[in-house]
From TrEMBL:
Binding-site residues for FMN, renumbered to this chain: 61, 107, 157, 161, 232-233
InterPro entries xref list: Diverse_substr_monoxygenases, Luciferase-like_dom, Luciferase-like_sf, NTA_MOA
The name this protein goes by in its record: LLM class flavin-dependent oxidoreductase
A Pfam match: Bac_luciferase
Homology family: Belongs to the NtaA/SnaA/DszA monooxygenase family.
Flavoprotein as UniProt keyword: yes
NCBIfam families reported in the protein's UniProt record: FMN_nitrolo
Entry GO MF terms: monooxygenase activity; oxidoreductase activity, acting on paired donors, with incorporation or reduction of molecular oxygen
Domain of life, per lineage: Bacteria
Keywords: Flavoprotein, FMN, Monooxygenase, Oxidoreductase
Record-annotated Luciferase-like domain positions: 33-388
């Protein structure tokens, strides 16, 4: 590869709950996830991540519970597999108050929100954090959540994305089109707070949403928050190509990542955007040690606390398949899914039995795990970035906050020495840091102010 080496972007991947990806790890004596209901836990985490110069804390969320495995929530509750799960957005102001640069990429399900009120909430947070907000747009994959919201069940997979498109159309109009940059004057002498000629109501009459009115908040530094997305079915890729600025993919190898990034960048180009106007992330876990032996001893110790069954209960909800119904070595009829199609088709390709699934979830989850010295981990991360054509990682917590601390103390200096990781934060908003430019949606993005938004529909 010629030219300067690509800098590696890193988000801390977590959730406002006990078990997130590596299920069972709450039983480890050093794990602090049992404290997720305490503000101190989140403030400590924010400070740790900023010391490690992480780009952002990426907070996953679900609406509903995992009740597919065994047709109930027994394993889900016993192992605390994302149940209980608290609201992720309530953490942001507090974590922002003890940091200056750390970004917040936070998940919200469009099916549980209305764009008129949601857009105001994010504008508020983007003001309070001076432009550090990102939104991980999800469409939901749990019938339990849909039932909780009063529906009979989830809408069809592609229809969920159609609704999300329409949600975004309303949100772009509110964020980008309702207030001009110079609308707020706050001129005491002239008794002019905002110039009425520079503020206008939006009008939207789409297939799912109707909205008419002014954006309730004045513009925030980024206007539209940095948009993240994580679905990778065909319809999911089309949605990502249109909207996403950060895309989170699941890939077992750098080669698989390369295939996914090639498709995604092509889809972004087909949507009229620059294929490198998106940052692509892979989820990964690292276990660094001063020596190889130390790292592998630590991994062995972690493995003793993990719950493979908790991991499979999580995977059952992702794919919509009740694995508990099958014997350990019985073939499982993998079919079509209305849940996460990309997870279901990957499972179909692997065609694993329940015994094999339990083995794949040895550390409670299916994320790729790299254990070794800081130098060998840095080699592996560089290989993923260069061979997979990705931009960075969502780093999972095995034991929290230990996994993030280990990364910051052991791996970051090694990546810095290789010129692959920042040595200080540059000033500016989250979007400026991740994507450069003037901090606004790129001019060719469908939601940008440069476009004619008044009649935007998708
Ligand atoms: C790596 C990854 C992370 C995801 N994180 C979340 C999440 O935090 N909350 C959620 O509701 N869905 C999450 N999803 C589900 C996606 O947002 C999307 O709804 C799902 O993948 C269905 O899209 P697909 O069929 O296009 O893959 C995630 C998916 C992937 C692949």
């Amino acid at each position: 590869m010629s030219g300067p080496k690509k800098q590696i972007l890193v988000n801390a991947f977590t959730m406002n709950c006990v078990g997130h990806i590596h299920h069972g790890m709450w039983t480890h004596p050093r794990d602090r996830s049992l404290e997720h209901g305490e503000l101190g836990y989140w403030l400590d985490l924010a400070r740790t991540l900023e010391r490690g110069l992480f780009d952002a804390v990426f907070i996953a969320d679900i609406i509903g519970n995992y009740d597919v495995y065994g047709g109930n929530v027994d394993v889900t509750l016993r192992e605390s597999v994302q149940m209980p799960v608290n609201d992720p957005w309530m953490l942001v102001s507090a974590m922002a108050s003890v940091t200056e640069h750390l970004g917040f990429a936070v998940t919200a399900n469009v099916g549980a929100e209305h764009p008129y009120t949601f857009a105001r909430r994010l504008t508020t947070l983007d003001q309070l954090t001076r432009g550090r907000i990102g939104w991980n747009i999800v469409t939901g994959y749990l019938d339990s959540g849909a039932r909780g919201l009063g529906l009979d069940g989830l809408a069809a997979h592609d229809t969920r994305y159609d609704r999300a498109d329409d949600f975004l159309a309303v949100a772009y109009k509110l964020w980008e089109d309702s207030w001009d940059d110079d609308a707020v004057r706050a001129d005491r002498a002239a008794r002019l707070y905002a110039d009425p000629d520079k503020v206008r109501p939006i009008q939207h009459d789409g297939p799912f949403y109707r909205a008419q009115g002014y954006h309730m908040s004045a513009p925030s530094p980024q206007r539209t928050p940095v948009l993240f997305q994580a679905g990778s079915s065909g319809r999911g890729q089309r949605f990502a190509a249109r909207h996403a600025e950060g895309i989170f993919i699941h890939a077992p190898t750098p080669q698989a990542a390369r295939k996914a990034t090639r498709e995604l960048r092509q889809a972004v180009a087909d949507a009229g955007r620059d294929p490198y106007d998106v940052r692509i992330y892979v989820g990964i876990a690292v276990v660094p040690g001063a020596t190889d032996a130390e790292a592998h001893d630590k991994l062995a110790e972690y493995l003793r606390h993990a719950s493979p069954e908790g991991g499979v209960a999580h995977f059952a909800a992702s794919t919509g398949i009740d694995f508990a119904r099958y014997g350990l070595d019985e073939p499982i009829p993998y079919g079509e899914s209305n849940a996460i199609q990309s997870a279901a088709s990957a499972a179909r390709e692997r065609n694993a039995t329940r015994r094999q699934l339990l083995e794949q979830h040895a550390l409670g989850g299916r994320y790729h795990v790299v254990a070794g010295t800081p130098a060998s981990i840095a080699d592996e991360l560089e290989r993923w970035v260069d061979e997979g054509d990705i931009d960075g990682f969502n780093l999972t917590r095995i034991v929290t906050p230990e996994s993030y601390q280990d990364f910051a103390e052991l791996v970051v200096p090694e990546l810095q020495a290789r010129g692959r990781y920042r040595t200080a934060y540059a000033p500016g908003t989250l979007r400026e840091r991740l994507l450069g430019g003037n901090g606004r949606l790129a001019p060719r993005h469908a939601g940008a102010r440069a476009q004619r938004l008044a009649d935007l529909t998708f």
